[in-house]
Amino acid sequence: MTRPPIASLKTSILLLLAASVLSAAGMFWSHRHATEARTELQRQQTALNAAHARQQQDQTEARLIAEHLDAYRALIERGFIGEENRLAWIEAAQLANQDARLYGLTYTLSPRAAAPASLAGDLPLNQTHMLVNMPVLVETDLPRFIDALRARAPGVFRVSECRLSRITDAPPQPVNRPELDAECELRWFTVAADVRESQ
User: Fold this and answer.
1) Phi, psi of 114 (to 5 degrees)
2) Half-sphere exposure (Cβ direction) of 15: Cα atoms closer than 13 Å
3) Average pLDDT over residues 71-100
4) Exposed/middle/buried for 97, CB within 10 Å: 0-12, 13-18, 19+?
5) Rounded to two decimals, what is the model's pTM?
6) How far apart are CA 74 and CA 91, in angstroms?
């Protein structure tokens, strides 16, 4: 048997060696490219999952807004949400006094202030103190006034306290003349429609 001449195989061996090197380089490049592609796929999948989560949250918020929009509008119409409506409060107190057939009233309003955290929770809740003084004939006039005010009130209020005192030390007279003075402290509550409004 004769041996093949090395010189004639040299080209084939070089081509085989070059093909092996190119194959190894191609495998290395494709492995590196596949790793980069997997990393990019994971990054894109994470971004997609975050986008789905945001979409779910937006849909939930939109559903909640749609469910509560009528109640929110009703609170705006009632005067609980938005700017305080001092003129309407004063008018409601005067009309409630007339509805209860009382003898007039005087009032003072303090500036609006933030409500205590125990009442407000996370809401931008504000309160305005209103001190109402009025003469009354008998003690039962006071609950009638409060009920009439609740019926007319264009907002949300709470009676903090009421005090009754005698106007004179004279014995009661059989005439229809008020001999008691009622003083009530009311708190009117409002929630800012916009957080910037409460600051």
Assistant:
1) -70, 140
2) 5
3) 89
4) buried
5) 0.65
6) 21
| Spatial contact of 88 and 154, defined as CB atoms under 8 Å apart | yes
Phi and psi torsions of 12, nearest 5°? -65, -40
Residue 117 has which token pair? 């955290």
Distances (CA, A) of 18 to 11, 12, 15, 157: 10, 10, 5, 91
HEC assignment per residue over the chain: CCCCCHHHHHHHHHHHHHHHHHHHHHHHHHHHHHHHHHHHHHHHHHHHHHHHHHHHHHHHHHHHHHHHHHHHHHHHHHCCECCCCHHHHHHHHHHHHHHCCCCCCEEEECCCEECCHHHHCCCCEEEEEEEEEEEECCCCHHHHHHHHHHHHCCCEEEEEEEEEEECCCCCCCCCCCCCEEEEEEEEEEEECCCHHHHC
- pLDDT over 70 percentage in the chain: 90
Tokens of 31: 């492995």
Q: Which residue has the tokens 């007279």?
A: 173
The neighbouring-strand residues paired with 183 are: 133, 163
In angstroms, what CA-CA distances link 145 with 142, 170, 174? 5, 25, 23
Taking the C-alpha atoms of residue 133 and residue 180, their distance in angstroms, rounded to an integer, is 11
Inform me whether the pLDDT recorded for 198 exceeds 70. no
Neighbouring residues of 172: CB distance < 8 A, sequence distance ≥ 6: 179
